[in-house]
Specification:
By secondary structure, the protein is of the alpha+beta class. 30% of the residues lie in helices and 33% in strands.
Length: 279
């Protein structure tokens, strides 16, 4: 299964009343959980399955399922990693907390668990950011975009992080402890019982704002979907013909050739496909 399968399944199963659908099946307690369950169903095509059969199919499609404390949210067997983000306003930014945005997921990252590292034999995976706007428990907008097309490379973010970390650690007269965060300062007070953690709180503009120069949502529609796939990735996918055939028969689904900015150098443009679906 890959991103093309997910788009095809979305067109065939556009679940808009998100929380109602998944609460009715005892699979989610809130809209955030419901969005994650919907994304699983999109990739695994497990809509309306009995729960035991659904879980078995999901285990065949995904090598790893995580959560907010154990990123990523999912990994496809021999495929991409998936990060699911929910926002409540069409123009809200994404809160990434202590983890900066990533073009790829690396198996030697200290931000992922050993279960993730050992889920399969892998070194790096492309990351799909799946962002949903959920308002009044209904899914209004959904997008899928690769980290390669969305954010800068690791060096950009690591440089900022290390500069701040080095600055914090240059403070004289306090004791520092080893940490994966920007810093931990021990024995701040005379008794030596108070400490301070220094954490980065990362955020990024949502994809609709970032790619507004090539796509604008139709706010009169109940549901808008956007997917961007760069040509290099598109050409590696072996099932694009099925999506093209579906677009020929479904007037709500469109595939368009576009040019997008290189996140590492906006002066450079790269070819991509813009896939849209609105109803």
């Amino acid at each position: 299964m890959n991103i093309i399968d997910a788009v095809i399944h979305l067109v065939n199963n556009p679940v808009i009343h998100l929380t109602e659908y998944y609460q009715g099946r005892n699979r989610a307690n809130n809209s955030g959980d419901a969005l994650e369950e919907y994304v699983k169903d999109l990739f695994a095509n497990t809509f309306d399955m009995e729960e035991t059969a659904r879980l078995e199919k999901i285990s065949e499609v995904f090598s790893y399922l995580g959560n907010n404390s154990n990123p990523p949210d999912a990994m496809l067997w021999d495929g991409d990693a998936i990060e699911v983000k929910k926002i409540e306003s069409p123009n809200s930014a994404l809160a990434l907390n202590s983890s900066y945005p990533k073009q790829k997921l690396l198996s030697d990252s200290n931000m992922i668990s050993s279960a993730c590292k050992n889920a399969e034999n892998w070194k790096e995976k492309d990351i799909i950011y799946v962002v949903g706007v959920v308002k009044n428990n209904n899914l209004k907008h959904l997008c899928m975009v690769y980290g390669l097309d969305y954010c800068a490379n690791d060096e950009c973010y690591r440089r900022i992080k290390s500069t701040i970390k080095n600055g914090v650690e240059s403070i004289h007269g306090v004791e520092f402890a080893e940490t994966n965060e920007l810093g931990r300062i021990n024995k701040v007070d005379p008794l030596g019982i108070t400490y301070m953690r220094v954490r980065g709180m990362w955020g990024i503009e949502n994809p609709w704002n970032v790619f507004e120069y090539i796509y604008k949502r139709n706010m009169d529609k109940d549901f808008n979907f956007m997917c961007i796939i760069n040509d290099d990735k598109w050409n590696k996918l072996n099932n694009t013909k099925y999506l093209i055939d579906l677009a020929d028969t479904n007037e709500l689904l469109n595939i368009k050739e576009i040019k997008i900015k290189n996140p590492d150098n906006p002066a450079q443009l790269r070819g991509a496909k813009l896939i849209t679906f609105a109803r």
